[in-house]
Amino acid sequence: MKRRDLLVFGGIVALIYGLRALPWDRLPGRGPRYADIADLPPFRRLEGDGQTSGATPAFVGLDPPSEDADQRRARADVVRVDPCPALFGTDGTPGVVPIAYFSEFRCPYCRALEQDLDTLLTEFPVSFRLVQHELPIFGPPSELAARASVAAARQGKQQELRRRFMRTPIVAEEASVLRVAADVGLDVDRLARDMSSPAVQADLDRTRALADIFGFVGTPGLVVGRTVLNGALPYALLRRIAEDESSMPDPVC
Question: What pLDDT, on the 0 to 100 scale, is given for residue 188?
Answer without folding.
Answer: 97
